[in-house]
Design a protein that fits this description.
- This protein is of the alpha+beta class.
- Among the domains are: about 35 residues, no CATH class; about 60 residues, no CATH class.
- It has 4 helices and 4 strands.
- Strands 1, 2, 3 and 4 form a 4-stranded antiparallel β-sheet that branches.
- It starts with a helix and ends with a helix.
- The model has no long low-confidence stretch (mean pLDDT about 80).
Length: about 140
């Protein structure tokens, strides 16, 4: 409910122009309403959506469920850049000829453990996921 819309609606119904401050005062004092700030909610954090999901899948046996999740790592993230040396001497860290490759891992896990996984150089596109599902995961489940 917005004050401007409420003010306009009151004017259209009664023909009396009420100030925004008076409308605010009535909302707070007489009706016990307070001003709330609107915010976007992630539907995955919505209790109603979570309850609907649980209701939809609760009858499926746990060993029928398979979960896939994409995870990425860059070579630079795992380089050794620190080490122990005598005080006063420079630490040796050879970063020559190191490529900053990005690798993506896409595992499929069920209640019994890992079913299948792929590792791709670079980011995984939707096509890669579809191929993984059709060729490796579905064929491995038969």
């Amino acid at each position: 409910m917005y004050l401007g819309k409420l003010q306009e609606k009151m004017f259209n119904l009664t023909g009396i122009w009420v100030t925004l401050s008076k409308i605010t005062q009535i909302l707070h004092q007489k009706l016990g309403l307070s001003l709330l700030v609107s915010q976007a909610l992630d539907c995955r954090q919505c209790p109603v959506a979570q309850a609907a999901f649980v209701a939809a899948v609760h009858q499926i046996p746990a060993d029928y469920l398979v979960f896939i999740d994409e995870s990425g790592v860059k070579n630079m993230d795992v380089w050794q850049t620190r080490g122990w040396e005598k005080r006063g001497s420079a630490g040796a860290c050879d970063l020559r000829n190191q490529e900053n490759d990005h690798w993506t891992i896409l595992p499929a896990v069920s209640e019994g453990g890992m079913i299948a996984a792929i590792t791709e150089k670079g980011p995984v596109e939707c096509v890669h996921v579809e191929v993984f599902l059709k060729r490796q995961l579905v064929s491995g489940l038969h």
